[in-house]
Amino acid sequence: MSQFDNVSVLKKASVYFDGKVISHTILFAGGEKKTLGVMLPGEYRFGTEQRENMAIQSGQVEVRMPDAAAWVAYKAGESFDVPANSSFNIRVLEVTDYCCAYFAD
Asked: Which is nearest to 78 in space by CA: 102, 57, 105?
């Protein structure tokens, strides 16, 4: 899917890591929430409250999930899940465009 129709967009951006990660929140009529963002190269650690799925639209990253020793590579067209109430590390290897979906479980 290349676009979202009939949504609301929060005007205020979420800015992390001195502007190296920026996202905007998209709200759907049925209550679903997603964020669209861009990450500049670097290594970051994110915490989660809800279960998430991060889809890489363009770029390339490596991710280390909670309690995992190994980094796993993801590129455009791939995605990964993150459990609720956890954290993950991400190495952004090139400018990366992403879409993150949140699940209320």
From this structure: 57
- pTM value? 0.91
Both tokens of 56, joined, read 């890489």
Nearest-CA neighbor of 18 among 44, 37, 36, 53?
Answer: 44
Cross-strand pairs, 20: none
| Residues 99 and 35 sit within 8 Å (Cβ to Cβ) | yes
Rounded CA separation 25/8 (Å): 8
Contact 71, 64 (CB under 8 A): yes
Give the single-character DSSP code of 25: E
Residue 19: phi, psi to the nearest 5? Answer: 85, 5
Q: What is the pLDDT of residues 32-50, one digit of tens each?
A: 999 999 999 999 999 999 9
Looking at the structure, give the CATH architecture of the domain made up of residues 7-103: Sandwich (2.60)
